[in-house]
From TrEMBL:
Protein name: MICA1 monooxygenase
One Pfam family linked to the record: bMERB_dom
Residue ranges of coiled coil: 23-50
Main location: membrane
Keywords assigned by UniProt, alphabetized: Coiled coil, Membrane, Monooxygenase, Oxidoreductase
SMART domains tied to this protein: DUF3585
Residue ranges annotated for the BMERB domain, each copy included: 13-154
Stretch forming the signal peptide: none
Source organism superkingdom: Eukaryota
A GO MF term: monooxygenase activity
Subcellular location: Membrane
Alphabetical list of InterPro entries matching this protein: bMERB_dom, F-actin_Monoox_Mical
Amino acid sequence: YPTWKRTLTRRAREAQMKRFCKAQAIQRRLEEIEVTFRELEQQGIKLEKLLRDEEGTLADQKTRWMNELLYLVQKKNNLMSEESDLMITVQELKLEEQQWQLDQTLRWYLNMEESLKTPKDRAAEQEILTQLVDVVDKRNLLIHMQEEKRLSEL
């Protein structure tokens, strides 16, 4: 086994492990966001009840509760934005993994001796190449969406 093949295999495993670790971290953060959503919702419900039920409350207290409620809404919106970014990153990781798998299969076909390829092999190679281009286009679209979102937030 030539050194360059071992190096490529090792790098591929490292990249795959890196994607896996990133996916796990994203999953943990999504779970944390879900818990925080529930907590914010409970706090919001309490504040809404206070605002509705307390007829004789001072205007200053009501203003404070209203400000707290608006702060909770802002926090929830920020979490929703982060969740959206994480979901895009998950899609990007899936497409990256799919691209890697298609690339490996395509390399196998490309390394095959041309005279040994059957028409079925050539058709499969072309299909894989088409799928690979499609995956790259999808990744490009995701990156474009992220950039548009970032610019709109600015």
